[in-house]
Amino acid sequence: MTDRVLVRRGSYLDSVSLMLASQDAASVPGVEHASAVNATPLNVELLERQGFDLDSHDSLGPNDLVLAIRAGDDSSAQAAVDAIEDRLRSSAGSDGGESAREAPRSISAAARARPELNLAVISVPGQHATYECARALDAGLHVFCFSDGVPLEDELALKRRALELGLLMMGPDCGTAVIDGVGLGFANVLDRGPVGIVGASGTGIQALSSMLDAAGIGVSQAIGVGGRDLSSHIGGLMTLRGIELLAADPGTEMVVVISKAPDGLVARRVADAARAGGKPFVLAFPGLAPGDAEALGAELSLEGAATRAAELAGGVLPEPTESLAGPATPGAIRGLFCGGTLRDEAARIIAAAGASVATTLDADNALVDFGDDEYTRGRPHPMIDPSLRNAQLQRDLARPEVGVVLADVVLGHAAHPDPAAELGPLIASALGVRERPATAVISLCGTTRDPQGVESQAARLRTAGAIVTRSNAHAARLAAAAAGLEEAGG
Amino acid sequence: MSLLGAPVAAATAGVELLAAELEHEGVPVERVDWRPPVEGSETALTALAALSGRIAQANDVAVELMDSARPLLVGIGVAGELLPGMDRTTILHAGPPIDWADMSGPMRGAVIGAAIHEGLADAPEQAERLAASGELVLGSCHERGAVGPMAGVVSASMPMWIVENATLGNRAYCTLNEGLGKVLRYGAFDDEVQERLRWMSAVLGPVLSAALARLGEPLDLRSLIAQAIQMGDECHNRNRAATSLFLRALLPALIEVELPSEEVAAAARFISGNDHFALNLSMPAAKSAADAASGIPGSSIVTAMARNGTRFGIRLSGTAERWFTGSAGVVDGLYLPGYGPEDANLDLGDSTITETVGLGGFAMAAAPAIVSFVGGSAEDAIATTRRMRAIAWADSSSYLVPALGFAGTPLGIDCREVVHTGVLPAVNTGIAHREPGIGQIGAGLVEPPMEAFVEGVSALASELGTAA
Asked: 0.95 cut: is pTM over it?
């Protein structure tokens, strides 16, 4: 066994490119471990915990690239290094011609060089995102900010500034938007249609638009606003702006507003604005107290919201037909999600069926969001790289006391290119070696035109032994039923 | 049907995958080569982000003042009469303030030379004693409205160019250029140097002053620099075109000057033999534009960059007179035969005022001959100017570069963007020998110290934070 540690000073690369490079290197025969990471304190600590010796490299910082390889012999180690360098070269862009212009070093410089730019897509590490967003707004660009971990007061200042300038500030922590037919961040491939969406929840937008897609109903615009827009602190600034824009948008015939757990007062203000917009509207506020939701006429589930939106558009959601294949498999329920809103909807349904549901992995019945800050600091979102979530699923299925695992698979732009390829074999082998049977339920969010193909993903996961449904609420009901809970109500 | 008013076209910073997905969707994408900001600057940058609207307004004002400045050469005077608080024992130097004890060799040599020139000392040892004891008052040129190349030493009797910014009425001053070889600004102080200084006061100054007076109207330096930029100068390290243009503009008046013809001829010969003569015009012109932009509350625009041979200092518009400094750098360049990097003094001089207003390294694309100092190509020169756009607030509306399709040079360094992108201002400069009295031994490129810019943004953040 040989360890090789290489350091390239002053060479920062984004964590997704590095993850792909690490994967390439890890698949080289004879390689036991391969990491290509920026030398953040966390990553350095992780490498040291793996037993790599970094002592000989002084003062490593986040601008330094570290390659750490453990392999059976030198030639495998070298092959792993080559694989990383090949991948990083290809992600650096192909324009190497004589007249090649150097890439701009800032968003402002890019905007000055190309006046036709009108949008900034920002996904830098959270502690740097405030400045990037502010400068993009200065440059007159609308902003889609994928980064999370931005302080609340910064978000407020950015959104106020955007409104002053007549610009959209989508995010921070905005996972999804579809603007003029262009998907931003995690977005499914949708037809254009009459439904306009404003969403403080990326997976909420994805789940809702995918359900509408299954009913043959398209989307005009989906304006993401970031998960905290309807908090009392932000006061729904961008949601209100989005409602205004959709009210004026001739392509939008009806409006859906989605937010997990909005502040009560803010939710009321949003409801008033939606009414004032003059178009038919649906509010989906999972997490709002049921009494408050009723008072506002808001739906508590994505399923309910999609059903009403489909009705407004003159369509019908297809009835989910999946059912349990055999008898119940009582035991702990483990819900392992990439999408926070999907988790919340499932948790509400399973709790209503009589189970106590925790949000942390140490409880018996746990429904956990792997897209939460806690699991994404310094690593890609689980929709891109579900390995952390999948590993937990494998561990849970190996535990005899677990009866049901429930997991989401979200397709679309920017998501993992083939989630079933990893998840399918893992479920099949884990279910195969169990003494006591267990049930695996997959909530599949996607459309037929998504690059991964919703039908082929479903077919392969079913072959692996999972129950697959395109309704998240139905997936939760099936999970509750499989665990032997009696009232699996919606 | 378009929410953004036009087809989506995106700049992306961060995860490459998101950019690639947009490209798959057929969206025009400009990928920013994003890197984390310089260590130690994150807190200040984030604090400034909340005020970025206000800073943007302040920067617009500051850079507009810089861009609209119209420096005119109005005449020649004597330092002691022009500069505030300038008595016979005051000696000014380049860069931020520095004590005698911390001065490098060439700076000390120049101070000694000036003390002898003013008759304050007969011998170098005596001058050193006066300087060390505090009997000579040492001060920074910038703090008295002046700039000087290399050591930049100014004493009371020296003739000074008077440059006035016609837009705002503020003035800036600079000594006359002594030529190459053994000269005061490189720390030489022997008899040859003394004799030239006396001649400059007695002959060169009066001849040029008389010629300027005969011109009828002040010489427009902005126009002269703009033409020189289009003729291959960047007006810091290459001043050949500007010197020629100056001489051409002055020629009819020089011929008519009512002074002994041998004196006029000597002055003309002196200017013709010195490719850098016009540096001492572009510098005060730049200073008058940079000073115009100084003191705009909240502005993060750099209004001075200057080196005293030990420290490299910058000033920001929003913090006006304060200096933020770091160690002066080692120049990467070509050396005259017999000299090498071990002989070089650290970076020196006020001439980086040119870069501050979009000349020098920022105008490199106009002067491809300059990059040969570091073995570069014409493409490198163009790339350097383009790279400076990352840290510049705007493009100059006067200084246009033919090779860039007559685009303006990048103008107004945003201190925030320096620490944000890690791109340091590109600076062209001469190299002085570390020992006094030897002179110029080469020329090349030098990097300012990042710490000065980090200190600058932090100070701006705390100033705005307490004001808010």
From this structure: no
